[in-house]
Design brief:
Layout (H helix, E strand, L loop, with lengths): L14 H8 E2 L2 E2 L10 H17 L3 H10 L5 E5 L5 H12 L4 E4 L13 H11 L2 E6 L4 H10 L7 E6 L5 H15 L18 E5 L6 H10 L6 E5 L8 H9 L3 E5 L2 H4 L5 E4 L35 E3 L20 H19 L3 H12 L2
Parallel strand pairs: 3-4, 3-5, 5-6, 7-8, 7-10, 8-9, 10-11
Antiparallel strand pairs: 1-2
Helix pairs in contact: 2-11, 2-12, 4-11, 7-8, 7-11
The protein binds N-carbamoyl-L-aspartate.
The site of N-carbamoyl-L-aspartate has 10 residues, from helix 4 and helix 8.
Amino acid sequence: MQTMTPIPMPTHQDTAHRVTVLNRHDRPFHVVLAQQFDRPTIDQLCQLADMIRTIGNARQGSQFLRTLLSHRRAMLYFIQPSTRTFLSFTAALQILGVPYSDVRDRSTSSEVKGESEDDTIRTFSQYFDMIIIRHPMEGFAEHVATMLNAMPRTIPVVNAGSGKDQHPTQALLDIYTLYRSFQEPSRTEPRYTRNVFAGKSIAFVGDLKRGRTVRSLAYLLCRYPGVRLVFVSPPELRIGDDILEYLTRHDIEYSLTDDLRDGLPEFDAIYMTRLQDEHDAAGESKKIDYYRYSLSYDMMQHGKPTLAILHPLPRRHELDEQLDTLPQAKYWQQVRNGMWMRAALTATIFNVDTAIRDHYHAYYTF
Ligand code: NCD
């Protein structure tokens, strides 16, 4: 088994270059960084996810969707624990008729015979048309994308969570859920063009230092001027300065606090997160009173009736199960939204998004 050598993290100055390496024709080809997504791309993905949701509801529609990518194959290389994200991707692939295989345990791969992880992945790239990676090491998905760019056959790499760094597909489903929470369904107005985030306060609560979902979502929210972000965390688990710098550069207003109750009446959405103590080799987070970063049923009397509560899950005590039945609880819809969003993303990567739009307009608009 190979030991893991850390991959040096690129600096912010490189972001534009990194995006160029990952995109093709100004669209994400590999999906590795949330910074690859501009506003039109995010909005189109949300709209496409809605269309797939509608089309997939009927037998004929779901049969149409299953023909679109039945000639492609996907590989899931998930060597970090996962239930939701793994099943969400496999369900999304099933919607589009994409057969898939997976490796979830390195002890079953030739890595035990001394093969490098790079070679294992080069091998996958000969059998499959897409690789979806969840990996404990920051920067690994990006490294694979660059490596495959140099292969005679380059296939798209999708980052399904890279260490403490990023989780861009989670951020896309989060923004889709926020969009759906902030606006009334409308028959006359295209749903995903108006900036419903302007003037809204979104609080991120918990372990913001190591929670990759928050980092990726903060990047996406920079595309919506007028949004206000509040980072609520113990001082030891503050969001990274790299994110704060990025927000400043994009003129996004933000504040930092260690008190959840204080701002609660003002929030339009709360994004709860668990303590990421698997990264905590020295056990330092044992000293933190994480109960202060929990949301209870009783606290909801101080929140807006229209508040949207999100959580990437899995949850622990920070999100009281009693909240589940409230209209403000959006986290179970969030899970389902992930499946539609990942189907939309896969369709877009393989350029069948236009076929879906055409089908939708032919059969579902009156
Ligand atoms: C998150 C992750 O893996 O980063 N889960 C997920 O993908 N839905 C959040 C977490 O593990 O806390």
